UniProtKB/TrEMBL annotation:
Organism superkingdom: Eukaryota
Provenance organism: Elysia crispata
Similarity comment: family membership: Belongs to the peptidase M10A family.
Keywords tagged on the record: Calcium, Disulfide bond, Hydrolase, Metal-binding, Metalloprotease, Protease, Repeat, Signal, Zinc, Zymogen
Cysteine disulfide partners in this protein: 300-492
Official protein name in the record: Peptidase metallopeptidase domain-containing protein
UniProt-annotated binding residues for Ca(2+) 5: 307, 353, 405
Ranges of biased composition (kind: Acidic residues): 273-284
Residues the record lists as binding Ca(2+) 3: 161-162, 184, 187
Gene Ontology BP terms: collagen catabolic process; extracellular matrix organization; proteolysis
Domain Peptidase metallopeptidase positions: 91-251
Length: 560
């Protein structure tokens, strides 16, 4: 998911809605990536797709996807996508003059400076040979193109990722950073045909295409194809790139141009004859025989692991399955890692989940003694797929798992529950507050251990255990009378929703809560309710006395 969003195959969520993607959106995006990468369009992240996503490439987005270069042919059968004949894509800006300047801010540590300057000059010459453009190296601080070799974060908002995958990126023509070209210096930059490094000339020629106004091309033979093409020996600018750059700046003293005899390779080819080249006419894999583990449980009759209300939609988790209940009534049921991109594939349950009440509306998940943070339905930057220990929240080592996590509508603070204890998180949701845990008896009538808790779209706090749930009365700090069936709430078939005959409250309610167990707000509410209960008790005594006096008068009247 992160890869698809990063490179333009999925639209990024807005900060206002933080929309979650459907399985259909994800399948369509994967097919577009597979078409762009010249591999079979299966719509699932199979072995070839994972290999494609691991290939070295440019860090700029694949704008030809957003600009309609990849499309579904209405006259073709099936759901395969096609790429339009005009594959180059131009940006919305170009340089308004032809004599451009460039400057080295830093040099790579992997080769001598003079060698670097020569390779950069040759890469710029790829474009000046076919256009009226010229490039001059300068020493002053305001060139058209700044050239930078850097690692990780380098003050442009697009940090590099270390060796592999993203090799560099560049900005389209314009003010400020417009035209600037950055290379990841964690790569092993080389020149000529080195099998153990990345060829600087080829990558630089590609990135300078962006600096001049060319976006990525959907043509696998083009220099502006997103993935690294490797060293070509004597390089010639492919036709697609020539048409793109001359559409922006016109042609220069180019002379007669003959068609390319060979296609440019995507990456250096393996010498292993057992490796197959990408092809579309492959035999489909034999379908696997599904066992019970591959069938999602019936949510109407199965105990849940947890339920949460995320982005105004309800999500339920049972075993390795994620159930999404959309606003339009549709349901998506997939394995957890397929929708929540970043979880390990072997994750077999979620104990608790909550959308945090912070500006970014992050989503916090718990499984066992570990937690994960997500932005929308992909894992947050810097978060490991294996999660992090819950002790980072200052939760004690002996806590085995978090049973429930919820935001209480009364104060909009996040609460975590484990067994008969609960914690309140600080205002930044970074740690639990110092005077916790406290006894769950404060939340009168709430059964323990919990399976889930959350605040619904109407602001009601709901607590879940087994196949039942309880609605909480915030002002009285107790559950409302009568447990209800989850199946009825989910509008399951009628035969599965007969009302349970249960006690009004679990036996734990009869235990008098300790006033010290609640915080100031909770204690105040309980104190007010205690006074009200006392008044009701006095009223009951008065009624009993009145009845006794009436009976006495009746007896005297009858006997007399």
């Amino acid at each position: 998911m992160k890869y698809l969003a990063q490179f333009g195959y999925l639209k990024g969520p807005s900060r206002e809605t933080q929309d979650l993607r459907s399985q259909e959106d994800l399948t369509r995006a994967i097919k577009a990536l597979q078409k762009a990468g010249n591999i079979p369009q299966t719509g699932v992240p199979d072995r070839r797709t994972e290999a494609l996503m691991a290939k070295p490439r440019c860090g700029n987005t694949d704008e030809f996807v957003q600009h309609g270069a990849i499309y579904r042919d209405p006259n073709s059968q099936g759901s395969e996508l096609r790429i339009r004949k005009k594959r180059y894509t131009v940006a919305t800006s170009k340089w308004q003059r032809t004599n451009l300047t460039f400057r080295f801010q830093t040099y790579t540590k992997h080769m001598p400076r003079e060698r670097t300057r020569h390779l950069i000059s040759e890469a710029l010459k790829v474009w000046s040979d076919h256009t009226p453009l010229s490039f001059t190296e300068v020493r002053h601080s305001k060139p058209d193109i700044n050239i930078l070799f850097a690692s990780k974060y380098h003050s442009d908002g697009y940090p590099f990722d270390g060796p592999g995958m993203v090799l560099g990126h560049a900005f389209f023509p314009g003010r400020g950073k417009g035209g600037d070209t950055h290379f990841d210096d964690d790569e092993n930059w080389t020149s000529n045909a080195s099998s153990s490094g990345v060829d600087l000339f080829m990558v630089a020629a590609h990135e300078f295409g962006h600096s001049l106004g060319l976006a990525h091309s959907g043509d696998p033979s083009a220099l502006m194809y997103p993935w690294y093409m490797g060293f070509e020996g004597k390089f010639r600018l492919p036709d697609d790139d020539y048409r793109g750059i001359t559409s922006l700046y016109g042609s220069g003293n180019r002379g007669t141009r003959l068609p390319d005899k060979e296609k440019v390779a995507l990456i250096p080819q393996s010498n292993d004859p057992s490796e197959e080249d990408p092809t579309y006419d492959i035999e489909p894999e034999e379908p696997k025989v599904k066992d019970e583990k591959d069938t999602p449980p019936d949510y109407c009759s199965s105990p849940i692991d947890t339920i949460s209300f995320i982005r105004q939609e309800m999500f339920m988790f049972i075993g390795k399955w994620s159930y999404r209940f959309k606003k339009n009534g549709e349901k998506d049921i997939v394995e957890i890692h397929q929708f929540w991109q970043g979880f390990p594939k072997d994750l077999n349950h979620i104990d608790a989940a909550v959308e945090l009440p912070d500006p970014d509306r992050r989503i916090l998940f718990f499984s066992g003694k570990r937690y994960w943070i997500f932005n929308s339905n992909y894992i947050a930057r810097g978060m490991s797929s294996q999660g992090r220990p819950i002790t980072e929240f200052n939760i004690p080592e002996d806590v085995k798992k978090i049973d429930a996590a919820f935001v209480w509508g009364y104060n909009l603070r996040t609460y975590l529950v484990s067994g008969d204890m609960y914690w309140k998180m600080d205002e930044n949701n970074r740690f639990v507050e110092y005077d916790y845990p406290r006894d769950m008896g404060t939340w009168r009538g709430v059964p323990v251990p919990l399976d889930a808790a959350f605040q619904d779209k109407n602001g009601k706090t709901l607590f879940f255990q087994g196949l039942r749930y309880w609605e909480f009365y915030d002002l009285r700090m107790r559950v409302r009378r009568g447990a209800k069936l989850i199946a009825r709430w989910l509008r399951c078939p009628k035969e599965e929703t007969e009302e349970l005959k249960i006690e009004t409250y679990p036996s734990s309610v009869d235990k008098a809560p300790d006033p010290k167990a609640g915080d100031a707000a909770e204690h105040k509410l309980k104190k007010g309710e205690s006074a009200k209960d006392a008044a009701c008790s006095l009223k009951n005594i008065s009624l009993m006395l009145l009845c006794f006096v009436s009976l006495l008068h009746y007896h005297r009247f009858s006997s007399g």
